């Protein structure tokens, strides 16, 4: 039972890191477009 909880927690943390990284990429792309427009 403990092993299942640990594996689930690791997958959740990995997913959060992936989403956070994607958010940073999208934000950087938006800033680049904004700067190009200026």
UniProtKB/TrEMBL annotation:
<keyword id="KW-0472">Membrane</keyword>
<keyword id="KW-1003">Cell membrane</keyword>
<keyword id="KW-0732">Signal</keyword>
<keyword id="KW-0449">Lipoprotein</keyword>
<dbReference type="InterPro" id="IPR012556">
    <property type="entry name" value="Entericidin"/>
</dbReference>
<keyword id="KW-0564">Palmitate</keyword>
<comment type="similarity">
    <text>Belongs to the EcnA/EcnB lipoprotein family.</text>
</comment>
<dbReference type="Pfam" id="PF08085">
    <property type="entry name" value="Entericidin"/>
</dbReference>
<dbReference type="GO" id="GO:0016020">
    <property type="term" value="C:membrane"/>
</dbReference>
<protein>
    <submittedName>
        <fullName>Entericidin A/B family lipoprotein</fullName>
    </submittedName>
</protein>
<dbReference type="GO" id="GO:0009636">
    <property type="term" value="P:response to toxic substance"/>
</dbReference>
